[in-house]
Specification:
This protein is globular. The protein is 39% helix and 22% strand. It has 199 residues and is of the alpha/beta class. It is built from six helices and seven strands; from the N terminus they run ααβαβαββαβαββ. The chain has a seven-stranded mixed sheet, sandwiched between helices. The chain has a single domain, classed as Vaccinia Virus protein VP39 (Rossmann fold).
């Protein structure tokens, strides 16, 4: 049983590597799953499913967790569906195949995990914080954006990439200066932030 889980996870990771799917790094995923256990998280909203890797890892972390996850790419969504089925987690992971910008949810979540288009972090934070419980957390992945956030602008080759890095920096400042939310930044994986409403 445990061995099958291991080899199935390995397969998902190999698929991600071969198909350039940017799934969470190992220490990032460890941070996330440990966080879920430590804070007894029960209801997660994930923006950016990709092929379901992080959603599956979160579900495996605790039998008390259920996850709603949004993905706009059809091929990835279908691959995620397949993977979730393989783990028999259909009853705990619900996928929404849609652009998260347009998704409206009524449900409340005690963890919102933002891991989609990096230029839209701020928009997603503002939009989905309405779905966060009073004591809930918002976690954002790729705060360092493959190390680019720490680089000089002149070192970043394309205009596109410079624009994206600027947006991530804006998001970091938005979090640092936020009056409603307090944020801690972790140098783990590709950089992770954890935000929570101030008392
Ligand atoms: N959380 C995943 C990785 C997600 S990669 C893991 O660690 O396993 C980011 C994903 O977000 C991509 O698959 C991309 O298609 C999706 N995405 C980007 N912008 C989106 C949007 N506006 N709405 C929904 N999904 C989006
Ligand atoms: Mg990520």
């Amino acid at each position: 049983m445990v061995e099958t889980i291991h080899s199935d996870i390995k397969e998902i990771k190999e698929y991600a590597k071969e198909n350039n799917v940017p799934i969470m790094l190992d220490d990032g995923i460890n941070f996330l799953t440990t966080f879920i256990i430590k804070h007894q998280i029960t209801n997660v909203l994930e923006i950016g499913t990709a092929i379901g890797y992080s959603a599956i890892m979160m579900a495996l972390a605790s039998p008390n967790v259920k996850i709603t996850s949004i993905e706009r790419d059809r091929e990835r969504y279908l691959e995620a569906l397949k993977n979730i089925k393989k783990f028999n987690l259909e009853n705990r992971i619900t996928l929404i195949y849609h652009d998260a910008v347009e998704v409206k949810l009524k449900e409340q979540f005690d963890l919102i995990f933002i891991d989609a288009a990096k230029g839209k972090n701020m928009a997603f934070f503002k939009k989905f914080s309405k779905n966060l419980t009073e004591e809930g957390y918002i976690i954002t992945d790729n705060i360092k954006f493959h190390g680019y956030v720490d680089k000089e602008e002149s070192e970043i080759k394309t205009r596109n990439l410079r624009g994206l890095v600027r947006k991530i920096k804006d998001y970091i400042n938005f979090l640092k200066n936020n009056e409603e939310y307090q944020t801690i930044f972790y140098e783990v994986g590709d950089g992770i932030s954890v935000s929570r409403k101030k008392d």
